[in-house]
């Protein structure tokens, strides 16, 4: 059996080397390393793929979030509601811009931001909601967009984990995750569903004025060379990374299908087990692309999760705990206004979730070994 990895980037590269290498070489030969034609080409291709009017590439997914918030003109003291159960980047940029993060609980089944908790957290100072499409499953966007409209709030999608996923609206129509809110951010970190070979990110919007504002912000606040109209940042996607991404974009749907197929096999093996809740997003009639499985995460009941982690490691099966500490309990983001009763789900999930290997190169033999190792541990303890 091939060595099991959490993410197999080498295996994936070996299969696309013949398209990626010439694409990189083209950049090397042109020496257009910054804002070269490859960046523009990738931007256009991603706009077409997502069905979004503007993609603005930038240096990473954390910058993308920050720049989206700067572009909307959010001001110190404005309250921004986001999920307690996510990667810290989301809350980090809110705090960095001196906005006030308001963390709220998540749904126990989807792990995404709890819509009722959003409603409860709204105050006259609330200016924006940042849903995170966690682990590859879009948040409950119809409800979130409705709340935003009612209270005149911006919606900033953190789409770092769900590129290529489709959201199915109540009326049955579909929109790609990242094309739903006022603005969205994504990350091309190597392990993401569309990853480059270094750092990268992008901002998406259908709003022409906002796109113009953001294009200046990513480039030192310049709209005309050496005229600095606003305080900006330096955040660029370099041409070599754009070359990698443009070569990989045509494979994204197949990559996401491979992830879903692996998830189906996992789900089948764990089906109806009294101690295991498998991820949602496969059994529903939402179509074939509503969950793109950035992570495959189980929620365990009456299982010593940490002992299972050790057991898997002993069997050379890597796994992850995303995320082990609720953000509202992190030193940097504690706030005396928080009430533990408002975080029941997150407080539970941090000790009961486990993410199994998930990538485009998993084979049946590996999945069978992983699932049988998990099951034999749980059934014996
Ligand atoms: C990866 C990630 C980010 C940050 O992306 P970087 O490119 O690493 O800066 C932000 N939010 C979420 C939910 C992520 O998973």
UniProtKB/TrEMBL annotation:
InterPro entries: DegT/StrS_aminotransferase, PyrdxlP-dep_Trfase, PyrdxlP-dep_Trfase_major, PyrdxlP-dep_Trfase_small. Gene3D superfamilies: Aspartate Aminotransferase, domain 1, Type I PLP-dependent aspartate aminotransferase-like (Major domain). Pfam families: DegT_DnrJ_EryC1. This is DegT/DnrJ/EryC1/StrS family aminotransferase. GO terms for molecular function: transaminase activity. PANTHER family: TRANSAMINASE, UDP-2-ACETAMIDO-2-DEOXY-3-OXO-D-GLUCURONATE AMINOTRANSFERASE. Keywords: Aminotransferase, Pyridoxal phosphate, Transferase. Belongs to the DegT/DnrJ/EryC1 family.
């Amino acid at each position: 059996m091939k060595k099991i990895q959490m993410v197999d980037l080498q295996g994936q590269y070996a299969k696309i080397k013949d398209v990626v290498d010439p694409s990189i070489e083209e950049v090397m030969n042109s020496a257009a390393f910054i804002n070269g034609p490859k960046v523009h080409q990738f931007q256009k291709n991603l706009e077409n793929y997502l069905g979004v009017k503007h993609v603005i590439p930038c240096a990473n997914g954390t910058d993308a979030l920050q720049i989206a918030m700067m572009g909307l003109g959010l001001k110190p003291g404005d309250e921004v509601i986001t999920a307690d159960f996510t990667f810290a980047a989301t809350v980090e940029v809110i705090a960095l811009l001196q906005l006030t993060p308001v963390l709220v609980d998540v749904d126990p089944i989807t792990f995404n931001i709890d819509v009722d908790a959003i409603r409860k957290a709204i105050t006259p100072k609330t200016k924006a909601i940042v849903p995170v499409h966690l682990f590859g499953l879009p948040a409950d966007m119809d409800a979130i967009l409705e709340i935003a409209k009612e209270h005149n709030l911006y919606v900033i999608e953190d789409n770092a984990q769900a590129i290529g996923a489709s959201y199915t609206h109540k009326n049955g129509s579909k929109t790609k995750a990242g094309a739903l809110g006022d603005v969205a951010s994504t990350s091309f970190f190597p392990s993401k569903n569309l990853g480059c070979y270094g750092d990268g990110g992008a901002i998406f919007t259908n709003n022409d004025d906002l796109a113009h504002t953001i294009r200046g912000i990513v480039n030192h606040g310049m709209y005309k060379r050496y005229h600095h109209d606003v305080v900006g940042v330096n955040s660029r996607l370099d041409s070599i990374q754009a070359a990698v991404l443009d070569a990989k974009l045509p494979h994204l749907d197949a990559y996401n299908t491979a992830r879903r197929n692996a998830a189906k096999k996992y789900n089948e093996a764990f089906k109806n087990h009294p101690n295991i809740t498998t991820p949602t997003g496969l059994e529903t009639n939402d179509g074939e692309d509503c969950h793109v499985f950035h992570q495959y995460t189980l929620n365990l009941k009456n299982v010593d999760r940490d002992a299972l982690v050790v057991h898997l490691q002993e069997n050379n099966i890597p796994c992850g705990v995303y995320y082990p500490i609720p953000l509202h309990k992190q030193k940097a983001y504690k706030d005396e206004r928080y009430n533990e009763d408002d975080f029941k789900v997150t407080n539970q999930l941090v000790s009961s979730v486990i993410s199994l290997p998930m990538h485009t190169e998993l084979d049946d033999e590996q999945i069978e070994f992983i699932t049988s190792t998990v099951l034999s541990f749980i059934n014996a303890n």
